[in-house]
Amino acid sequence: MMRVLADLHPVDPRFGLAVDEVLFQAARDAELGSIRFWINDRAVVIGRSQRAADEVDLAFAAHERIPVLRRMTGGGAVYHYPGNLNLSAVLPRKPGRRSVTDTFRFFGEAVAAALSPWVTVACGGNALRIGGRKVGGAAQARRGDTVLYHTTLLLSPDVIPMDRLLLAHRPGYAPERVASRPSSTVTLEDALGHPAAVENVVESIRLELERRLGTTGSVRSLTRAERAQAELLVESKYGRDEWNRSS
User: Is the pLDDT of residue 241 over 90?
Assistant: First the structure.
């Protein structure tokens, strides 16, 4: 049994990132696994080992009042907005998911299978692609026997194109630290020619993950203590330049 959390209304992205860390710690302390579906308000989210100035047009982001935040997982920069669906799976490591590669494969194939009623999705490395164009990218964090897998799925387009924010999509991109991997992208809506109901996508992914994990999820909310922990992390970490802009 593991818990399933779903918040499909855009949240403060600082809080959204903080909750992942709270769930990760709960898995480490109490072996409490979670599958979480959530939507962030607009933000550029860089990987743990990246440098914001290398990845983001900071002047444009400031003009549009789009925060630039750092997550706890690795990987490259991504633009979060309400047309994205975030999936986080926090689990103790199990056979078949021991390596980074195995974890990307396990969850990537599960998400691809869940999307198969709508469209054919190819899974390779940490990316999900439709017709060669990226519809989702994933990252991980690991501590001891606990792993956090996170992916962002592009469900519908935004009025702000990624290349206005992400420097990896521009000529001359040469970061000093971990590089993002720019790729041509497509949203699920564009691939289908019509919107896909986010609730239906969530339900399909949840059922596929439960089947592959051999468990049944229990739909719950954050506890009062967990919400308080997340709010504290916003104040002490995810809302502070010392974390988000450190070089």
Answer: yes
pLDDT digits (tens, 9 = 90+) for 175-206: 999 999 989 999 999 999 999 999 999 999 99
245, 68 in Cβ contact below 8 A? yes
Q: Rounded to two decimals, what is the model's pTM?
A: 0.93
Angle 13-30/224-233 helices, nearest 10 degrees? 120
Phi-psi region of 51 (alpha: psi -120 to 50; beta: other; left: phi over 0): beta
Tell me the domains of the chain and their CATH numbers.
Answer: 2-239 (3.30.930.10)
- What residues does 241 pair with on adjacent strands? none
Integer angstrom CA distances of residue 176 from 118, 160, 247? 40, 26, 10
- 81, 154 in Cβ contact below 8 A? no
Extract the tokens encoding 214. 């051999």
